[in-house]
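Handout, tutorial session.
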Amino acid sequence: MQRFTDLSEIDWIKHGIAKASPETLGTVSRLIPPIYPAYVKIFHPLYEDLTVEDMQLTWHEHAMRFSQPTSGEQQDLEATILSSSTMVYGGPTPDSQLIPLRWRALCSALRIPYAPTLSVWSFTRHFGGGSWPKRLIGPDEGTLAPIERDALISVLRRHTPAGPCFFHFWLLATEDMEDLVFRGTLDEAAAFPDDVPGVRLTPTHWFPEDRSWLVCSDYDLTFTLVGGSESLVQDLMDSQVLECVRVHPGTRIDSHADVPEPSG
């Protein structure tokens, strides 16, 4: 795999995404150029931790309950931070017993519409105080779990011609805060981030030499976007591993995507 800082290979993305306007702000078209026949959103996985028996305990309550007491100015600082912020959710512990939880299943349990505009914020707004139940492990931002990443690679392989692929990391997805581009094979996408020095997340953008598809995992989103052919998107929708919903360039994907516009 070749690493370089020349960003010319991603110029087509920078120039192809929709220009910022009230109509395009917070939409798919601001991350993936509106040039593909079909688009899909791949949800990053949710889990339920069976070791948490208190179904009412929230992540924030747990953090407040088990925060370590300190003294002096540090205690005052920590108290100020805790009182002015809410812990939304956290990750598993070594003792956690995790079972996968589909976004659709959680929507059904909470009576939230399962729609293209669904996001992690949809659930957060539902939970009182903005904190998730401790029993739920929320999705990672900017990173596909290995099982979902490998399933995506497997589907992409059937729609990718011979030749190199390109992997772009936006500066906030790198350790040295600089944009990076790598050239390698599609299968080498499985090396990110654990086996590639200098990067922290799933590639921000990845695509083949002919640009017949484009994958985007934005650093602060809990889902991955893919633009490509109709057959590619249908294969992703049919995956037994990936949980997907179809979107289009105008689909809103920001934190208020599914909040109704005020009337009048």
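The second record follows below. Compare its token runs with those of the first.
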Amino acid sequence: MLIHTASISEFGYNHRVFYLGIEVMVKIGQINKLEVTKTVDFGVFLDGEDFGSILLPSRFVPEGTEVGEALDVFIYFDSENEVVATTETPKAQVGQFGLMNVIGTNSIGAFVDWGIAKKDLLIPFSEQRGRLNEGQSILVYVYTDKASGRIVGTTRFNKWLDKTPANYEKGQQVDILIAERTDLGYKAVVNGEHWGLIFHSDVFGKLFIGKQLKAFISDVREDGKISLSLQRPGKARMDDLSEKVIATLEKKEGFLPLSDKSSPDAIFAEFRTSKGTFKKTIGGLYKAGKITIEKDGIHLVK
């Protein structure tokens, strides 16, 4: 599970490569499209330009691959510091957040399951916000350490977020990643670049660390702090839900076993909205003469 942070790409190792006349960049710790230059019994070699020929072992080579083809491969350093390729997809590339399991610790830090066979990701002690223990499931940000050139993980997110002004408009839809539960609500990463907060009073449905979903900007304070809503604010939210309710009724022969007496979970399962918003919406539809509200649920007026 991951979310991309495009603004961090400069921290990878970039080398120019030309494929079919188009200049691209080989990025360590990210998925690249590289040309096959040679086939051998144990795999294929890829054009890594400044890195030379990069081996993609045979177990990762798609059937029927020929010289001249371009493959999407993840490029990284193996345990011997050699550049290698795989068609496996990591749980997070450089510049991304991912939910990972701690599989062990030693004198330098903790290791998490990166999703790459025979290659775990190190989170040094200095990059841990609180000591990590084997078996934990944690959110990790992956980056390239400038000093060592190694790809490592961190749970200290503050130095990677809020680096630019939060130029959002109220009501704007954004992508969020739930990162932490606090006394006030849930902290979330907004568009991979900023911190935001969903207050407990605005939470409905099930939220958990690592969950990705859409949200809306409800406020950006003068100090840059962002408040989030899981529902489109104002009248637009009601209009959207009204259309969904009518469309759903039409698909289900004019009846839904939901009403203002239904549980929040039942309402959320059907419409991904809060009970309060649902009640206001069906109340408006009832007044407009579009539905009737009965003991068994709501009925479409034909």
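Points raised in discussion: The chain has three helices and 21 strands.
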